[in-house]
Amino acid sequence: MNLRKKMFLGFMAFIVAPLFVLGTITYLLSQNIIQQNYAEQSAFTLKAVGRNITYVLKEANYFSQASMQREDIQRMLGFKDGVDAVTLTEYDRLLQRTFLSYTPAYSVTLFDFERQSFSQGKIGYRQLSFAELAKLPVFGEVMALNGVPRWIGPHEFGNWTGNKPLFTMIRVINDTYTLDNRGILLQQFQFSELNRIFNYFGTSHSNDVRFMIVNQDGLIMVDNKDKLSGQALSSHIDGSIHLGREYESGRMKFDGVESIVSVHHLDLDEFGKMNWSVVSVTPWAYLSGRSIQVIQWIGAITILSLLSALLFNMLFVGHVIRFILYIVNSMKKVEIGDLGIRVEAKSKDETSALARGFNSLVERISTLLEDVKREQERKNKAELMLMQAQIKPHFLFNTLESINALAAQNEGRKVSRMVQRLGTILRVSFYHKEEIPLSMEIDHVRNYLEIQKYRFEDLFEYEIDVPPALISTPILKLTLQPLLENSIQHGFEGMESSAGDGDSDRQKGYLWITAEETEDAVVLWVQDNGAGIPDDVLLRLHGTPGSRSSGSAEAEAPLREERVGLGIPNVADRLRIHYGSRYGMMICSRPGFGTVIRCTIPKRTTG
């Protein structure tokens, strides 16, 4: 992974991610705090609403209890015979004065166990017969309570109470003194006070807050907004809530709107048999309205912080990274040999010092490489001079001895030819340039071979085949002569005596010098049919270190002992150093089957 990606990942991991996590945690904590605070506030509110509802029911229960214990009301239920019209009128007035004088009272009906009933109510009330009363599911429960009120909320028995928001109390009337059962009281109330309670607590919070009275089965009996009365609470919420607990609050959707739904169970056991709860619904948008603004400010600050961090990363960190990558790319160019590269520093900070140091280092490397190159050139020239010095002593001595012998025999023509050939060889050796045309190298080789043929009569024959198109190709002087000398001295050793005994041509040595042209190079072949090079010597020859120009006696001693000589390694090193690693020399040899040497040089022409 490159530095730019690492810095980007570091920026995301240590700056962007922490800011994002911080914003998320802040948001979740604020939502949780809001929900907890509202839950506590909602608990106080619902309990306050519950207390007010308790006061309303307590007052109604107290008024009903006091009214049915009056002696005149008790006497109404004592007749076993029918009641005349005058008495019935008086009873109606008594009911009006006693039960309906209480403002929330809507209707009242007294039943005796002789199936007589006396009923009064406000306009539009529905009178219930004893037979209908006996069919109610709660009739048996009322009788079992024996005087304890059984309350029925609005819409609990819709086919009987209708759609009006009426609270119904049913209870057995006991004799004041004997506590005997005298009849049944059914009284209905229309508590408008509940609306005032709901509106008061609702307005103090928000007009969006909804209050409901719900029975144990989840039926909404009273809704302060008059829209959901008579419906099931479960059809409006997407969660579950326990109606029997003293207080519970949860966040869920109510009619598709995210809301806080709170429930408080009313403790009304001392006022009769009922199981009701107060439920409040508050939209979450109302609760989180101000917190949303805070979250928006936090989000804006977070975004500004991210932008600032990004700007810092682009202007400062990015600048440093780009400069480092620039240095890395420049170093890669230096690695492949481009020592002319220089780093430009546009700032005056530490990067400029790094640029100057890099430029100084490259310049120093370039200078050292130039020194090494010049030193190598001097060594190459020294090697060439060494090779020239190697061929001079013994070769000149032997050649001069041969000329002296010819002179003693009065072979003036042969002496002249030998001197001419020797002069040509010396002229090439003393040539001032390191490279010469291939034609001059071939001429040098031919004269050398002719002199050696005179010295070793009938030892070898040679053949030179160089296309005319290649004679102008430049080549390092004294490239081929050391290879031929090695073949004559070491490859043909042992053939001299055999040839002198008149053996067949099979025992004579042969040398072939050929040249061919490839796409971008000239290949020179030197081949003999001599004794060949042993495998271990050939292996060491191929594995000889490239810098053979050091002249180390320890490195050359094994080769001299194996009678390979200095010529072949020196020629290989000179070709490689002068022309590069693409060019050079390759040797193939097998004992008893001769040696083949291939020299590859660039395809050029002399100017």
Can you walk me through this structure?
Helices cover 51% and strands 18% of the residues. With 607 residues, it is α+β, with helices and mostly antiparallel strands. The protein has three domains: 1-311, 2-Layer Sandwich (Beta-Lactamase); 339-388, no CATH class; 393-495 and 508-542 and 566-602, Heat Shock Protein 90. It has a five-stranded antiparallel sheet. A hairpin with a 3-residue loop joins strand 14 (509-517) and strand 15. Helix 10 (350-408) packs antiparallel against helix 11 (412-429) and helix 10 runs antiparallel to helix 17 (567-579). The longest helix is centred in the N-terminal third of the chain and has 66 residues, at 3-68. The radius of gyration is 62 Å and the shape is rod-shaped. The relative contact order is 0.06. Mean pLDDT is 81; it is low at 544-563.
Helix-strand makeup class = alpha+beta
How much of the sequence is in beta strands?
A: 15-25%
Strands ordered across the widest β-sheet: 2-1-5-4-3
Helix content: 40-55%
Name the CATH superfamily assignment of the largest domain.
PAS domain
Q: What overall geometry do the principal axes of the alpha carbons give?
A: rod-shaped
Radius of gyration, in angstroms, nearest whole number: 62 Å
Please report the number of helical segments. Answer: 17
Mean pLDDT across the residues is: 81
CATH class of the largest domain: Alpha Beta
Note the main sheet. 5 strands, antiparallel
Any guess at the CATH architecture of the largest domain? 2-Layer Sandwich
How many extended strands?
A: 17
